[in-house]
Specification:
This protein has 313 residues and is α/β, with parallel strands linked by helices. Helices cover 38% and strands 16% of the residues. It folds into two domains: 9-152, Rossmann fold, CATH 3.40.50; 160-312, Rossmann fold (3-Layer(aba) Sandwich). The longest helix has 14 residues, at 212-225.
């Protein structure tokens, strides 16, 4: 039978999101500026046998790959998660990425290295459910093409070891799980108009946002795996909404037939303090102020979508 990634959760990740390549990235940027990437290639080649430190998304990837337990015996039904490195790195530097993954016992076998060119075009061929990258241009391109994507904060705190048996993922609502329809009302007309808009439409599901496909894929992954794996997925909605606007968000998730484990309707309170308690393996938000607060306590990704990011395009 042909090899396929269908019916798997596919995560595409840049080398800089998976590993701490911040020092290497400075050498890369200098090479791009001078039009010569040979020095960067040599830099990586000289460090081929030196494992790269874990990056911001490393703990999440490590936990997701636990869903493949039992697939080493050739049972493809138990190979439920595919992690693919999708990087602007060159193929020579890609050798260090794969070697570092092997030294950490990360079962990553596939990668696409574009030597400075836009890599996000390959998301369609992969059927990716998530793309994580430190490159803003790549994230914008992926989102524009309809794929869940976020710009990681490489300096984010990493605390995944606190919950080795759970994958904890937290999502903002508007412009992340849901469309920015309601956020546009808030930006144009203020809080009172927003609350009225959402109260009047409480029974009408919100249109989907860029991260609905990831939430669906996570739900499907947990359902298929059942209790066969030693790790469970726990999700949280962490939103600036408050009552009465909470109802439309909850009813939308019910309409999608997806259960969220925790929901935090914060009414504008700082999200960082609540994320410190939830301790997610990753948090996704469309607003930089929330991302900056969150990054101090958890791995964080900026979803560059919706009206809040129009002025930064």
């Amino acid at each position: 039978m042909p090899i396929t990634l269908e019916n798997k959760l596919v995560v595409a990740i840049s080398s800089r999101a998976l590993f701490d390549f911040e020092e290497e990235n400075r050498v890369f940027d200098a090479g791009v500026a001078s039009g010569d990437d040979q020095s960067y290639m040599q830099y990586q080649l000289d460090r081929l046998d030196k494992p790269a430190p874990a990056g911001v998304a490393f703990p999440l990837v490590q936990k997701l790959l636990a869903f493949n337990q039992g697939s080493h015996d050739g049972n493809q039904d138990k190979h439920r998660v595919e992690v693919v490195v999708l990087s602007r790195n060159d193929p020579v530097s890609g050798m260090r990425v794969f070697r570092s993954a092997r030294q950490f016992d990360l079962k990553i076998e596939r990668g696409v290295f574009t030597r400075g060119r836009d890599p996000f075009g390959y998301l369609n061929a992969l059927g990716a459910h998530l793309f994580l990258s430190a490159n803003e241009r790549d994230v914008r391109g992926a989102l524009a093409a309809g794929f869940p994507a976020a710009r990681v904060y490489p300096e984010s705190a990493k605390k995944a070891e606190r919950h080795p048996d759970e994958i904890r993922i937290a999502f903002d609502g508007d412009a992340v799980l849901f469309s920015d329809e309601a956020e546009q009302v808030f930006q144009r007309n203020g809080l009172d108009a927003f609350q009225q808009h959402e109260t009047e439409r409480a029974a009408t599901p919100l249109p989907p946002g860029p991260f609905k496909p990831l939430l669906l894929a996570l739900h499907r992954l947990q359902t298929l795996a059942g209790h066969e794996v030693p790790v469970r997925i726990r999700t949280a909605l962490v939103t600036a909404r408050s009552a009465p606007a909470h109802e439309r968000a909850i009813r939308t998730l019910m309409d999608w037939k997806i259960d969220i484990d925790e929901a935090m309707f914060l009414g504008g309170l700082d999200k960082g303090a609540f994320l410190r308690e939830f301790e997610p393996d990753f948090f996704f938000d469309d607003q930089t102020r929330h991302c900056e607060s969150a990054a101090r306590v958890s791995p964080t990704g900026h979803v560059i979508s919706g009206i809040a990011n129009h002025d930064n395009a």
